[in-house]
Amino acid sequence: MDLARMLERCRRDQWAPSDLNWSVKPRAMSREDESAIVQLFTDMAGIERLAGALFHEQEKRATDDPTLRAIFHSFVADEVRHAQVAQMLADHYDVHHFRIYRTNPSLERFIPYFLDAIRLLSDDVANAYVTVGELILDIALLRSIDDYVADDMSAQAMHLINRDESRHIAIDYRMVEYYASPEYARRMEARETRRGAIETARAYATFAGMLFHAQPFIRDVFLTPMDLVDPSGVRLREAFKRFQQLGAKPGVAARPFGRFMIGLQEMYLHPVIGPIFGGVLGRVSGVGGRFLERLNDPEELEEAAKKSYEELAQEALAAKRTPESSSRGHA
Question: In this predicted model, what pLDDT tens digit does every residue of 231-243 receive, in sequence order?
Fold first, then answer.
């Protein structure tokens, strides 16, 4: 990937909430649909603020590459803008003020643990969560919310947000490649050698806290809303399928977090362990049991392992443009 060209795109494709035509009136909705849509955009604002904090951390760590640092800086601006637009959309669709809307409590509880984790744990752990979050957001959630809302105001906002998210996914995959490299493995080995027992214990405790709060966060903010706006589950399965393909890359599978997640999946699919401890394993993974299932056949994983990270990123981006059964018309 040419980072200079990516930075040029980041600067060229900036936009402002005022670029949207906010005079478009919401279409008529039932009380249930209006409440659901306003809550979706309220939670989306919180998700985007969290993403901005994550990119800010990555910006601070990209000290050896000023171009990459500038790209992450632009991503922070993107996410701040997305959060502003999401909240404005929540206000726009809150026509009847049926109730007071607040960010989902599970998201609020997850944020401090996750931010502590990315500061204390290896960068590849944070990047794995960022990547799966961006895949869910880009391939599944944004498109399905747009289909569910089904009006011009949502469509124009989602078009611009999706354009930004495509840049984010391209860089997410590039960072996965770096974290799977021998160079990064050597850096982490040196870091672990310097880390004392107290710091190591604190890192593991933070990781445990993050895992404990990850499952209700992912369930309440991603999975449950997707059951509403994409009841077929096609798009969500596609997002997790792409993430599992990343795990087929040898360098990713070799990282401790990669081994951890693959180990959970193997235990979940075990004919004896799975039926007994499946619920616990789904909770520990954060994504629940249905997405610990193998979503790729062996041939697909073998093919993914041979592809470059850039090829996998392009295929993930193409997946969001693939026609399939949509949720339009449910609202």
Answer: 888 888 898 899 8
Domain with residues 3-319, CATH architecture? Orthogonal Bundle (1.10)
- 11 Cβ partners below 8 Å, 6+ apart? 74
Per-residue model confidence (pLDDT) at position 265: 83
Distance between CA atoms of 7 and 4, rounded to whole angstroms? 5
Report the pLDDT value the prediction gives residue 269, as an integer from 0 to 100: 84
Question: In angstroms, rounded to a whole number, what is the distance separating the alpha carbons of residues 312 and 304?
Answer: 7
Q: At what angle do helices 298-306 and 234-247 cross, to 10 degrees?
A: 60
- What are the backbone angles phi and psi of residue 287, rounded to the nearest 5°? -105, -5
- Residue located via tokens 């959630």: 141
Low-confidence stretches of the chain (pLDDT < 70) are 121-122, 191-195, 321-331
Q: What angle do CA 241, 246, 248 make, to 5 degrees?
A: 100
Distance CA 131, CA 251 (A): 16
pLDDT value at residue 22? 95
Residues 172, 47, 114, 259: is their CA dihedral positive or negative? negative
pLDDT of residue 328: 41
What pLDDT was estimated at residue 325?
A: 41
Measure the CA–CA gap between 99 and 183, rounded to whole angstroms: 53
What residues contact residue 100 under an 8 Å CB cut-off, 6+ apart?
Answer: none
Domain boundaries, the chain: 3-319
Q: Please list the alpha-helical segments (H only) found in 195-308.
A: 197-218, 224-229, 234-247, 250-254, 256-269, 273-285, 298-306
Helices (H), ranges, the chain: 3-12, 31-61, 66-93, 105-120, 123-135, 142-149, 152-179, 182-194, 197-218, 224-229, 234-247, 250-254, 256-269, 273-285, 298-306, 309-319
Return the residue matching tokens 């706006």: 229
Q: Which two tokens stand for residue 117?
A: 């984790």
Residue 330 pLDDT: 46
